[in-house]
Amino acid sequence: MFDIKLIREELETVKKGLAAKGAKIILDDVLQKDKKRRDVLTELDQLRNEKNLANETISLFIKEKKDPKEQIAAMKVVSLRIAELEPQVKDLEAEINSCLLGIPNLPHPSVPIGGPESNREVRCWGDPKHFDFKPKTHIEIAEDLDIIDFKRATKISGSHFILFKKAGARLERALYNFMLDIHTAEHGYTEVFPPVLVNRQSMTGTGQLPKMEEDMYKLKDDDLFLIPTAEVPVTNIHRDEIFNEDELPVYYAAYSPCFRREAGSYGKDTRGLVRVHQFDKVELVKFVKPETSYEEHEKLVANAERIFQLLGLPYRVVLLASGDMSFAAAKCYDIEAYAAGMERWLEVSSCSNFEDFQARRANIRFKGKETKKTAFVHTLNGSGVALARTLAALIENYQNEDGSVMIPLVLQPYMGGLKRITRD
Questions:
Q1: In degrees rounded to 5, what are phi and psi of residue 273?
Q2: Catalytic site positions
Q3: Which of 360, 300, 350 shows the shortest CA–CA distance to 329?
Q4: Domains of the chain by range and CATH?
Q5: What's the CA gap between 179 and 183, in Å, rounded?
Q6: What confidence tens digit (pLDDT) does each residue in 340-384 have?
């Protein structure tokens, strides 16, 4: 939820931030509604004070056996006016909140201004692999090894779905189990396994609604949505709750399937694992104090990078420009793994700091240990990491000339000791 106080007090800063994100939002309407609401509240406060004073006077008159008829009549007039104004306040608050829900988060000052062309590579790890033979794409490899059946997946569900088979299914399972083990044992995250159906309030709390409803899978008969990422249910674990300051930071790691309609993407990457409607992901979510959130953000990125380092996959970290970030993010790094067969960098993780944007929408706060005052936490999340693109990069980078695929050493225990995938 956008902070109305920031619009009132730093209007030009807000306008510049929204322009940097490419958001064409006129703020005059929300400011006018906000002024009207505050004017009505001022009148309401005065009337309530008058009513309280009238009650005291009436009580005194009755005690002194005086006739309070005139005071009772005056109080009725005040009560009627209060009854008129209270619904106005509720209506104005609903209208203001509706406006605020449509305003994206502002970019952090360290974020480059511009669109995707202004994204900035921060660092690279590993060198793109070169082969003595022409490398195949993951589609060719998977079909030759009979570990993914794209045709039958389309028959079952339609385009952009996956049917993993045999060692392919086991490799997918090995990857997310390996990731969960690393993040819980090495990085201190608490594992949770959340529901994959969430209500509208949960989707609104993390910023998917109302703006991106067309990209979501919604149940016809219930106001429930299939999750686009475990960020949604995990962040909402603490909706409408207050942490004690010494409980922070809180880290969660969650495996889940994810579902995205990818509206507007039809015709792009129609085959393979690059663009699918259902995929697996291990998500990392943090609840932290505001003063540590950017330090925690860097640690979050490093946690996701560790997965690729252990897998031996070349990757690069890209700082997204203001116009290429998500609606809710204040700062975001993408991690892109190199896929040798396609000769492409594939986005396999996004790590975002939302500051207090989600916390305001979901009402997640903490109480200061000494001040005893409450403030909104900062929330962060990152893919730690996403499949199926990571699997695509893995089998393209670990392919052999004979069509087999080597299993990275760290995954072999999860594969029952299997070192190489061959055609049966």
A1: -105, 5
A2: 260, 275, 347, 350, 389
A3: 350
A4: 4-101 (1.10.287.40), 116-421 (3.30.930.10)
A5: 6
A6: 999 999 999 999 999 999 999 999 999 999 999 999 999 999 999
